Amino acid sequence: MAIMSLEAVHGFLGRRRWMCCGNSAAQPLSAHPPTISTVHIEAPDDDSVPRKSENTSELTPSSLLNHSDQIMQRHSFTALNSTFIVDSEYQFVKELGQGAYGCVVSAKHRRTGEGCAIKKITNINTKRILTKRCLREIKLLHHFRRHKNITCLYDMDIVFGPDGNFDEVYLYEELMEADLHAIIRSGQPLSDAHFQSFIYQTLCGLKYIHSANVLHRDLKPGNLLVNADCELKICDFGLARGFNQAQRQGFMTEYVATRWYRAPEIMLSFANYASAIDVWSVGCILAELLAGKPIFKGRDYVDQLNQILHYLGTPSEDTLRRVGSPRAQDYIRSLPIKPRVPFQQLFPHANPLAIDLLSKMLNFDPAKRITCEQALQHPYLAVWHDPSDEPVCPTQFDFGFEDEDSIEGMKKLIVEEVNHFRAEVRAHARASGQIRRQDSLPIPSRDDIIASPIQEDAPTNGATSGYYSGNPVSERAPSPVMDDPSAELERELAETHIGRS
């Protein structure tokens, strides 16, 4: 995929406000109006959608899904060593990628030729954490679908087996051409204007996410989807958690962030953490754009900490006192005092304003790290900054579903969410005069999006999201693992001379 020129980047500035998914006021970039597919999926009546207050304990998942879904016309094809069963109006185009939690293909509408990404989330019955991840992903994509810098969810579908059960969910999403990881690794020249555009759009999406009291917790280049027109969207909310704005505390649970983009306070058991962890990840992404490679590429937790300390220097005693792990405190104090390495030396050709923003994002102390809102106002992003076009989310996200911990209970919530989403988007489309009651959801026309996927190579195994390149696994950041970062660091530190003494 060829990224647009510097001149086109600036031209894109005037168009970006019209790219909001689901916004009735937004105009598509194409001159053609939105189109509709012709499969017959009747939208459920309001009283047919299960409510959380209803007693659904005696219902199987298939009985929860609206019966009108049974007349949906589907067809199957094989891709990525998996069978896809999808809306028959969509024709398979190419494999995009796969990981531990599912696989993604591109498809096009048979009549209109409009592109769509179909993500198949698999292994829902395997482990509770995978069921919860699926539930979390679809709820957050639903909640955030109207922001232009968050991946747009068009539709959802569940295919039940003969026994009335299911083990996979299909998400129909806006088709993007690449992820930022693939672009960085492609070697194509990127200008400072590209860096500004990518970071600004990431921060716009992140501001919206944080304003709903949500932490993404896994921001990395592979989770930033990009088109040739430099439009960027955040994806993959499977690891997201809520946080308390007043107390500035997040849910300190395991399974947080890919190691290379993980904030130090997560590993060091700080008393609390909040939105600063995502800002750290954006700083790591900016550094990777400037250098063309990750800045903190740790082999394990101790090595990750050592690399951070090597570049950022020894933290102050005040910061060290807030490290919750005594062993980590002792380890850091045992190391020689390290001065901070000036970022100007690491990135000698970078814009000085980019260096300044980077230093504020990669502050070891989360209490002193720049916030998302402050970063948007930084002079480095002045050409993009527009307060009127940087909205906050109008409603807080409800993480109450996290209390449900059984696979069957979560699967019922998944079906409820699919019903709710389908009813909502179809009702909105009917109110806008876009579809008839029996029609499925319109897919916005995007003629200026190149239909071809980003690569001809076999997909990279082990990745968790994004549209993957054919690069070796070693060149891509390690996938998030089911771990407790602070406990893992404690275990590794116990093997050092400090732990054995």
Describe the structure.
There is one protein chain. By secondary structure, the protein is of the alpha+beta class. It has two domains: 32-175 and 404-451, Phosphorylase Kinase, domain 1, CATH 3.30.200; 179-394, Transferase(Phosphotransferase) domain 1 (Transferase(Phosphotransferase), domain 1, Orthogonal Bundle), CATH 1.10.510.10. The chain has helices at residues 6-13, 61-64, 128-143, 180-186, 192-211, 264-267, 276-291, 301-312, 317-321, 326-334, 343-346, 352-361, 372-376, 407-431, 485-494, 497-500, and strands spanning 74-79, 82-87, 90-99, 102-109, 115-121, 153-158, 169-173, 178-179, 214-215, 224-226, 232-234, 241-244, 249-250. β10 and β11 form a beta hairpin. α3 (128-143) runs parallel beside α14 and α5 runs antiparallel to α7. 46% of the residues are buried. Mean pLDDT is 79; it is low at 12-19, 22-60, 248-256, 436-465 and 468-474. Residues 461-472 have a biased composition (Polar residues).
